[in-house]
User: Fold this.
Amino acid sequence: MAALFNELKIKDVSFRNRIAVAPMCQYSSDNGFPNDWHFVHLGSRAVGGAGLVVVEATAVSAEGRISPADSGIYLDEHVEPFGRIASFLKQHGAVAGIQIAHAGRKASANKPWEGDNHIDSDKGGWDTIAPSAVAFGANLPKVPQAMSVQDISRIREAFVLAAQRSLAAGFELLELHFAHGYLAHEFYSPLANKRTDQYGGSFENRIRFMMETMEAVRKVWPERLPLIARLSVTDWDEGGVTVEESIELVKRLKAAGLDLVDVSQGFVTPDISKIPWGPGFMVPIASRIRKEADIPVAVGWMISEADQAEQIVGQESIDLVMLARELLRDPYWPYHAAVKLGDPKADTILPVQYARAVRAR
Ligand code: 536
Assistant:
């Protein structure tokens, strides 16, 4: 038995293995609606054997979309098409998760393959909001409007409504996107937050937006279902957030009802020169957070091999591995990993429609 294929239980939800499909933006929606592309993209990876499938960063409000093609859950009409996807994921043995997000100053951008830059106002771009009127820079030079306290309440309420719609759609796991330089991370990081009110300055003030959002969402997201957050735990930059303060933040989020932290990093400024890229480079940091904050953790980034994932779960005690690009290369990565690791689940992971034929080799 491989550790990677051990069941995991968080609250009332059981995961068949430790392999998660990381939320991956598809830039394929119109007015936020998920469509056949999302159904096939996500459905294929449930059929491929993942234990958890997390729907891409899905905007809580229209202006919170990274691009006009982002998925969104800011209308009641979005619930039905997401419901179809969630239902299929569950039918094929995966836990159905969704990440809800607001892009802050990084919103209003073109798709990556159409420039990845801010869209001009006369070409369908929109005004962005953020903690402070400071631009990201580089390809995203638009200066956001500094949010009023009323704007902050509105966005917190948008997260709550998005959580309620996610529940109505049948999702069993909700991830708050608190990473990658989007709105929540912009509040957390002194590199983006220059406020002088109760939402900026001290650690307490910089985490206030995340804490209040977490607390408000937890009130509507059932206790029996996992509520998790993806967090950039370090900015890899002088003056940015550090692993040490992120450990304190995770402890507080846990006290407010966080069930697992999805450990990520960076992207609050265009300078990515200090990221120490390498296979599984976030694993030691995630292990440390797991130990010091005493909370289940997921970790991603440069995890590609079955034996590597097995070691991360088995030796490093990481609860879930978040795979992204590797699962684009091979939607059957979980099945192939079970075969490589000699786990008996290799015989049962594929759906009945395929299993007999594949076994009869
Ligand atoms: C980080 N990104 C994260 C995104 C979308 C754009 C890219 C998100 O959280 N919605 C990333 C950087 C480099 C390579 C892959 C992903």
